[in-house]
Design a protein that fits this description.
The chain has 616 residues and is an alpha+beta fold.
Length: 616
């Protein structure tokens, strides 16, 4: 067969340039990545052999490192599942996940952080070009006769040749660049393997002139007693399964015994995974049966709100040849899932007592964890106790329990407001009536905050209510601040309301006098039974322009000086245009404060200019 010369996918060429030229300070990670890929290949063949024993007949799985000082080459060889032509093009010629655009977008300029992206974006193989000016891959897929040679200098193209001399599995030879001779030094190789790959369950052998030496412990870490495992070993195993270089924020190692027996080694990452918000994310936990890898895409093991968890579950309760269909329907996994949730919530409760430390977790994963209030009715009480929020009474995050402990005796509800930006929310005029009465309001800025209060509606008997709805009645609570000025008389209120309704009939469903405002003249709230202004904006951003159109109520503060002057001018026909302009300005002001765009920016500007001209 003639040699084929192919170009990398355009994204790959860009990523190669970034990997080779930007991440040299951690160039030893290439070995971790290639060993991890080799271990995955062995796991895949071992699993395939459960259904097709002939594929792995006579094989004892191993990974071999062969340094050659004379040629300045390093070979990483495995006897796993191998690759055919299509696999080589797909896995080594393209990036299967998000591509270079997303890769570049997530670069921070900090090598320690950027190095995490290597594994998270599925570009681990390309890290070989940090130390090699040419990479040769010799491989044969299990069950096939043809072998293949893949070769590239990492500069935009690669070649493919058919061969009859390929070994079982995959052999990757790195032709090292000048200055990287350390990677043919046996002492250096031992150090790297013990640091990054010691707990891979497949033996890693160092082959020096035909003499093999096993240089990793080759034991499944999760099967060992906790008392025998150091923090460094937990950390290295975490880095092995996540391909990250951060520290795990929490490690949970346990063995469940009883009706169903299983072992878990779970980690909460120190930084959010790149794919945390990708809707097609499938990676969850690594499922093993009697230390045999089955799958890392068993969605039935974790609820969606804990999708940031990484780790291993090993059970004896499933057959080794369990199929994907069986995994989706077996009650065993449902029971394991329930046990995992309970264990994690218990450990999080203990950790939450360390307030500053827990805030790090919340900053990283709170936006996802709160989804549990919406999704998991069985554990909602425990989930709620672990939730943290910004509020009007504390610069630090607060819990429901802390909120309730600070409530005035007369207060019967827990109040919140939603929006896009914390600093803007803190200045929202709708807070004024609550602040003047000493009532704390939770400030919620995540999209999920619009949904979970519709399901989780009370905490410890206190209803959870939005302050942007008319039923958030606070009149029974005495004000602790003196309200500014006397209200306009009732007859003027009625006239002003009638005029506002006449002008704004196509914009609002009602205009009302309120005592919930203190310093602002007007504010918009949602109509009874209507979605909040923030939620409607979110829906429109997702193309739901018409289906979610809601009505609004304009609230008027009868004590505000502007409102008083406006009411007094309403009977003077000479000032009628000025009155109308003022009402429209106040309405646009209320919209603007809520983050809504002006419907008529030019009209708003003209009215403002007219008032400025008269004032100056």
């Amino acid at each position: 067969m003639t040699e084929e010369k192919l170009s990398f996918q355009a994204d790959v060429s860009k990523v190669l340039d970034i990997v080779v030229n930007s991440l040299y300070s951690h160039n030893e990670i290439f070995l971790r990545e290639l060993i991890s890929n080799a271990a995955d290949a062995c796991d895949k063949l071992r699993y395939s052999a459960l259904l097709h024993p002939e594929l792995a007949k006579g094989r004892s799985f191993e990974i071999i490192l062969k340094p050659d000082k004379e040629k300045n080459e390093l070979t990483i060889q495995d006897n796993g599942i191998g690759m055919n032509k299509e696999d080589l093009i797909h896995h080594l010629g393209t990036i299967a996940h998000s591509g270079s655009a997303e890769f570049v977008k997530n670069l921070t300029g900090d090598n320690q952080k950027d190095i995490n992206l290597i594994g998270q974006f599925g570009v681990g193989f390309y890290s070989a070009f940090m130390v090699a000016d040419k990479v040769t891959v010799l491989t044969k897929k299990a069950g096939e006769e043809k072998g293949w040679i893949w070769e590239s200098d990492g500069k935009g193209t690669f070649t493919l040749n058919e061969t009859n001399n390929a070994p079982n599995g995959t052999s990757i030879t790195l032709h090292l660049k000048k200055g990287f001779e350390e990677y043919v030094d046996p002492i250096r190789l031992r150090t790297i393997v013990r640091q990054y790959s010691d707990h891979i369950s497949i033996p890693i052998a160092l082959d020096i002139s035909g003499k093999k030496e096993i240089i990793n412990t080759a034991s499944a870490l999760w099967t060992r007693p906790k008392s025998e495992i150091t923090e460094e070993q937990y950390r290295d195993f975490y880095r092995h399964i996540t391909h990250n270089f951060d520290e795990p924020w929490m490690t949970v190692h346990f063995k469940a015994e009883g009706v169903i027996e299983y072992t878990g080694l779970l980690f909460i990452p120190g930084t959010p995974p790149i794919n945390l918000f990708q809707p097609d994310q499938k990676e969850t936990l690594n499922l093993y049966v009697n230390k045999v890898f089955i799958s890392n895409e068993v969605e039935e093991l974790l609820p969606h709100f804990l999708r940031f968890i990484r780790g291993v579950i090993d059970t004896t309760e499933l057959p080794l040849n369990v199929s994907r269909e069986m995994l989706q329907h077996t009650p065993v996994l449902a029971k394991i899932k329930k046990g995992i949730i309970k264990r994690l919530l218990t450990e999080l409760k203990k950790r939450s007592e360390q307030k500053e430390d827990y805030e790090k977790f919340w900053d990283n994963f709170g936006i996802v964890f709160k989804e549990g209030l919406y999704e998991d009715r069985e554990h909602e009480k425990d989930i709620a106790s672990l939730c943290r929020f910004h509020s009007t009474k504390s610069e630090q995050l607060t819990s429901f329990a802390e909120y309730v402990a600070r409530m005035p005796k007369e207060q019967k509800n827990i109040y919140y407001i939603t929006g896009d930006d914390l600093s803007i929310l803190r200045n929202n005029p709708q807070l004024e009536g609550f602040t003047s009465r000493g009532i704390e309001v939770l400030l919620l800025t995540d999209p999920i905050d619009e949904f979970w209060p519709q399901v989780y509606m009370s905490y410890e008997g206190y209803s959870i209510k939005s302050i942007t709805h008319p039923d958030s009645d606070i009149n029974n609570i005495k004000s602790i601040e003196e309200l500014s000025g006397e209200a306009i008389e009732e007859s003027l209120q009625k006239v002003l309301i009638a005029k506002c309704k006449e002008l704004l009939k196509d914009e609002v469903c009602d205009v009302v006098i309120t005592d919930r405002l203190n310093k602002s003249p007007v504010a918009l709230i949602a109509g009874q039974g209507q979605m909040s202004i923030h939620l409607e904006r979110l829906m429109k951003m997702h193309g739901q322009q018409q289906a979610f159109s809601s009505s609004r109520i304009l609230e008027i503060n009868p004590r505000h000086p502007v409102i008083k002057k406006l009411a007094q001018s309403i009977f003077d026909k000479k000032d009628m245009q000025k009155v109308q302009d003022a009402i429209w300005i106040l309405y646009d002001q209320a919209r603007s404060i809520e983050g809504e765009p002006l419907k008529d920016p030019a009209g708003f500007a003209n009215r403002i200019n007219s008032f400025l001209e008269q004032g100056l």
